[in-house]
Amino acid sequence: MSWLGLPAAIRKAVILTILLVIWEAVTRLGDVSPLLFPSASIVLAAFGRSLVNGELPGYAAQSLQVLLAGMAIGSVLALVLTTLAVTTRVGAELLETLTSMFNPLPAIALMPLALLWFGLGVKSLIFVIVHSVLWPMSLNTYTGFVTVPRTLMSVGQNFGLTGWRFVAGILLPAAFPYILSGVKIGWAFAWRTIIAAEMVFGVSGSQGGIGWFIYQNRFEMNTDLVFAGLLTVILIGLLVENLFFRWLERKTVLRWGMSAAR
């Protein structure tokens, strides 16, 4: 069987295995200090120990819990803004102005203000996550709304749909591929933001997330655990993208014939 004939999951697993072998070879043949750059075997051993004792799963679960709370709030706000934008001229101008102002602003740059307003804790993290997901999700959702065919919109108007009923009954289903794309972009931004925020401002102790785990072990010079934390961040990102979002695409836009299968 040819390489392209193999399932995508197997091809990706082979690529990851090759990268691990190269990593191991470079660290061993190059006589690199484990304190600066540990080998793949050392990192995987530390990763396995942290999984077994529940340390990494606990920190990762805390980060994901905060991230999902921030994404939920950001999604609701994005839906409200885009609903106003497609139903009123003032709403469209408001969304355009706000996205032009805040979309280029890095979420982590708002962390000092979040600390002043909400203190050192989860509320500050949720605030910066909401900022990181709100604008890309709003832009994508609005783009999806305005590209809905006029004939489809006319059908909804002929049935007497207005306001929120028009958005829920016509715009949301028709614009779902754009909305899903916005959620994927928002997830990527939020995941990077929470790791960075926890590393710089994250709370310690039982409320610490995976970013705090990485920072804490860097401070204690446990380089193998730092790499294990980074590996956890990468693996969660891969799992969410290749399992959850692929599954959601198959159940929605691919099943509805709104996108070509990959």
Structure report:
This protein has one domain: MetI-like (MetI-like fold, Orthogonal Bundle), CATH 1.10.3720.10. It is an all-alpha fold. The protein has eleven helices and no strands. The relative contact order is 0.11.
Q: CATH architecture, please?
A: Orthogonal Bundle
Q: Give me the strand/helix succession.
A: HHHHHHHHHHH
Estimated share of beta-strand residues: under 5%
CATH superfamily: MetI-like
By DSSP (H or I, 4+ residues per run), the number of helices equals: 11
> What global shape is seen?
globular
**Percent helix among the residues?**
over 70%
Question: What is the top-level CATH class?
Answer: Mainly Alpha
Task: Report a brief summary of the structure.
With 262 residues, the chain is an all-alpha fold. The chain is built from 11 helices and no strands.
SSE layout and pairing:
Elements (H helix, E strand, L loop, with lengths): L7 H22 L10 H13 L2 H33 L1 H14 L8 H8 L3 H25 L3 H9 L4 H12 L1 H26 L8 H10 L3 H29 L11
Throw out a few tags for this protein:
mainly alpha; 11 helices; 262 residues; single chain; MetI-like fold
